[in-house]
Amino acid sequence: MKEIRDTLATGAVWKFLSLLFRCPGDIPVGSIGTLAGELPDELQARAWEILSLIEDSQLEGAYHALLGSGGPVSPYESDYQGPGQEGMRDKGVVLGDVAAFYKAFGFDHSKEMLEVPDHVSLEMAFVSYLKLKEAYARMGDAEDAYRICREAENKFLSEHLLGWLPQFLERVIQHGTHEFYEKTACLLGDFLLMETIQSENTLE
């Protein structure tokens, strides 16, 4: 049961953080508050601190200035290149591969937000979705389903999200003009570090 609870908690973190990178006017304030209460204890205080800034009247303008069209930071994976990828990435290929992941697992990204598939919020929401599927598979003793979802999560993280997310977070911290985005980027960075350490400990 502890493993299931931990999986659900990790899924809640991914979902919570994904919502913070939506346009502020599209963030479901009630839902995100509920999610904050499901986060691990070590992240709770910082999560509530971030949420205390969510109704700032200047936040939407800061979002568009940072992540909107013409802003200094792109929220799309296909605009980034990882080590050894310089000059090699094709936007259509990235979008097609991400969309194929979503389709294979029944993730309807259009119900999350009206954006192209490789938006940072959607990619994180997909990881959260896979975490939920893993937890439900474990609840039903469906080991094959669990393994398939777990392998897909690892593949998606390695081939997509983790290849560009650190660059994205660095740029958010560098160019952000509102503390909401700096605090969110720092929280996500620390969460990624926690996940890395946990994965390493699991392998030992």
Query: Which fold name corresponds to the CATH topology?
Result: TorD-like
Give the termini distance in whole angstroms.
22 Å
Number of helices: 8
Question: How many separate structural domains?
Answer: 1
- Report mean pLDDT, rounded to a whole number: 90
Biggest sheet overview: none
Question: Percent of residues in helical segments?
Answer: 55-70%
The global form is globular
- Say how many strands there are: 0
Order of helices and strands: HHHHHHHH
What does this structure look like?
This protein has 204 residues and is mainly alpha-helical. The protein has one domain (2-203): TorD-like. The protein has helices at 2-20, 29-36, 41-51, 59-67, 91-104, 120-139, 143-175, 179-203. The longest helix is centred in the last third of the chain and has 33 residues, at 143-175. The mean pLDDT is 90.
How would you summarize what this structure contains?
The chain contains eight helices and no strands. It has 204 residues and is mainly alpha-helical.
SSE blueprint and pairings:
Elements: H1 2-20, H2 29-36, H3 41-51, H4 59-67, H5 91-104, H6 120-139, H7 143-175, H8 179-203
